[in-house]
Amino acid sequence: MLGPMAESQLHLLKTKRFLPLLITFFLGAANDNFFRNAMAILILYRLAENAGIDGKLLVTLAAGIFILPFFLFSATAGQLADKYEKSGLIRWVKLAEIAIMLFGAIGLILGEPYFLLFVLFLMGAQSSFFGPVKYSILPLHLEPEELIGGNALMASGTFVAILLGTIAGALLILWNGGVWIVGCGVLLLAVTGWLASRHIPSAPPANPDLIVSYNFALATWRILRLTAVSQPIFLSVLGISWFWVVGATLLSQFSNLARYTFHANNEVVTLFLATSTVGIAIGSLLCNRLLRGEVSAKYVAFGACGVSVFLGDLWLSAPAMDSFTGAFRDIPAFLEDAQTWRALFDIFGVSVCGGLYTVPLYAILQSRTVDGERSRIVAGNNILNALFMVLSSLAATVMLTNGAAVPDIFLAVAIANLIFIVLFWRLR
Q1: pLDDT tens-digit profile of 165-186?
Q2: How far apart are CA 165 and CA 174, in angstroms?
Q3: Residue 82 falls inside a structural domain
């Protein structure tokens, strides 16, 4: 039997004010990761060698190219989302996605790596315009007591979409005719997402008299100042940004963790992704269950501490695997070793605690902001998220360059996370 909060949460899936939103965002996240991973695999295994370029460098560059538009366009996107009707903006953004994915399909078929990087930049731009309206529209269609549940379902759906898109991109792109399959697939997902967006209820403009500044530097500075006006909002933004530091670090190191620490093949990377996705989904849904619809940060510290505990144990479990030799292990061989189950449990634990940690912060951000400023504050959140992720990527790169093992990165994040928790609660 489902409890009352679970019933309330699942009830949102039957409503026209929420389900089209969820489907639209789910398909968008799936499409992004479908194309990005397919492109990365294609460059690494085919295009780089044929073109005589460094595939690892190009793929690393690609991550930065995707994040760059968040710095350039988030401020403008936040202003537009506050000034204009939000459901209409979503449909325009989804139309842009169709055009971008058409270019993406052409790039895949032609096998032009630099053209694909240009498409990736356009995808980042599209995502930067999508973000502010995505999170600012939820409070307009949900009751205050539904915000935790709605954000929990959004978080769960997003991570499931990321997993499915990532796996599909890796599996399909190297098939015979894979570039055509992926090219048609990204177009189909984009069109389906646009059709779903047509059913999103309208959301009147929050601040129609707002004068939009297209000077991205000035606009970015103004939005960051707006984000810092309210302490609860600013702390929520900092907390969300830190969550993405932890999450991005973990996800970006799965391939290295599998290959260099556990001597496993790409199948195990998929297993890590699946474990993480299930954990995030469970943690997000559990958060709503515990809070019973209350918008509160009471479990944030618990979730954050759990992240450090499980990351620390993942570091402790790793040395026993360093001496493994022989052929790279597939999933059955990987699971034969009891020690690997500990690592999977740690990844699952980090993800569950991450869900407990981040869902309330998004709900606080949405509920404590006024309608006329909400989209710009979400844009400010996106800018800081991107900044934090770039800095964490640079830090991980420096550690690896200086001889650190992959588990050492997790230990560093675990310690930094504890320091962040202390500073976070002192600021409160």
Answers
A1: 988 887 888 788 889 999 999 9
A2: 15
A3: yes
| Cβ–Cβ under 8 Å, residues 352 and 279 | yes
Beta strands in 114-201 (DSSP E): none
**Six token digits for residue 204:** 């009147």
Report pLDDT digits (tens) over 64-111.
788 888 888 888 888 888 888 988 999 999 999 999 999 999 999 998
The rounded distance, in Å, linking the Cα atoms of 147 and 16 is 16
- Report the largest interatomic distance among the alpha carbons of the chain, rounded to a whole angstrom: 67
Q: Which residue has the tokens 């984000």?
A: 227
Contact 397, 64 (CB under 8 A): no
What gap in Å lies between CA 305 and CA 310, rounded to an integer?
Answer: 9
* Alpha carbons 240 and 50: distance in angstroms, whole number: 41
Instruction: Kindly state the tokens that stand for 14.
Output: 């039957």
Prediction pTM value: 0.76
Tokens standing for residue 160? 């499931």
| DSSP H or E run through 384 | helix 374-401
Q: Give the span between the Cα atoms of 360 and 159, in whole angstroms.
A: 17
Which residues on neighbouring strands pair with residue 329, listed in sequence order? 264
Query: Residue 144: which domain range?
Result: 4-200+214-427
Q: What is the CATH number of the domain that holds 230?
A: 1.20.1250.20
Cβ neighbour number for residue 192 with a 10 Å cutoff:
16
Number of domains observed in the structure of the chain: 1
